[in-house]
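Hey, can you fold this one?
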Amino acid sequence: MATTVDIKKGVALKFRNDVYLVLDFQHVKPGKGGAFVRTRLKSLTTGKIIDQTFNSGEEIDLVTVQRRKYQFLYSDEAGYHFMDQNTFEQVTLDADMVDGKEFLKEGQEVEIVFDAETDRALSCELPLHVVLKVTYAEPAVKGDTANNPMKKATLETGAEILVPMFVESGIYVKVDTRTGEYVERVKD
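Sure. Predicted structure:
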């Protein structure tokens, strides 16, 4: 059994009947009282982020996880379907297990995190940035250039984001999949 000394960024641990990834941690030794470890944990099954404090030396249950690259095939009422490009094995995940699903397009490569012991899929992560085509952009208002104005645009996946006024239909944009924000225009 591991203890709080083994907590590091990127380590997965079992806590409250769920698997969490350590996003950040800090060992604290106050002038009065015992030492403790303050952590920021992300659930690999729900994506929820929590703050948790452990007493120094407390036992924790570490989990070994594997990250495997898969290709997105399609989605239907059963869920989101992915394929391992080496073994051609297919995996179906529930919608709540896929982060940034509104930016998924067919053929896109993603990483699926598996529990190494049970070989159960825990979550699916898209790349930090994706390049998507703008299918519709509201017309720009002439002369409205004060304070960096933004307008709505619809992407090829159906997602709507805010883009600068110069973005028009038919061009490609880079989108941050964590926040859903426009990053930059991409030249063909």
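The mean pLDDT is 87. Let me know if you want another pass with a different chain boundary.
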